[in-house]
Write a structure and sequence with these properties.
With about 240 residues, this protein is an alpha/beta fold. It has seven helices and eleven strands. A hairpin with a 5-residue loop joins strand 8 and strand 9. The chain starts with a strand and ends with a helix.
Amino acid sequence: MNTRIWAIVPAAGIGARFGSDLPKQYHELAATPIIVRTLQRLGRVNRISGIGVGIAADDTVWPKISSGLSESIWSFVGGPTRLETISNGLKELINRDEGDGWVLIHDAVRPCVRIEDVDRLIDAVDFEPPGGLLASPVVDTVKSTDSTARVIQTVSRVNLWHAQTPQLFPVGLLQKAVTKAIDQQLECTDDAQAIEQLGLRPKIVACADHNFKITHQSDLVLAGLVLSQQDSNTCSG
């Protein structure tokens, strides 16, 4: 059994909701581009063999910041959608004879992921298909509404989770799921959903809820505070 784990970080999007001409993954977080902080975190997970970053074909920023990164980080040209970018990355792994290995998909703009949580995900999945994902339990009250924003009902939050990344799957299985989703134009808001559409049930692994995705510029302040606290705890430990 091939137990090598590779990471793919899709970073070909423009981040329209961020409200900037510069893709959000390249905005600075405590004087360092967000994506660099994310890659540095993943690079500290010992069981990751290498990291592939999917970038846009016309990306002019990546070449400027990638020269100082680890040699284990490589890039490939992404596609017009996140799913197509991941598909391209999986094809790269298959071309590297890693089609029977495992792949860890992580958002470029989740720099606060804890190394301990990634290790716990790997341990919990234990190389058993179909794989699994990090998630945090829903703690807020959930309301369902109609088209006029009137409450229809309060939804039970029992067994409800906020899906996060990384998400860990066998390379070949995820490629099959992603190809089906693209060919059939199925909606997939994350990679686990593509796996689910094969009739499979990925495993949920609970993680810290501060592993949030930077979506708006205001998120940078919170991310900076979280990183500062994490660094402080690391140093004190």
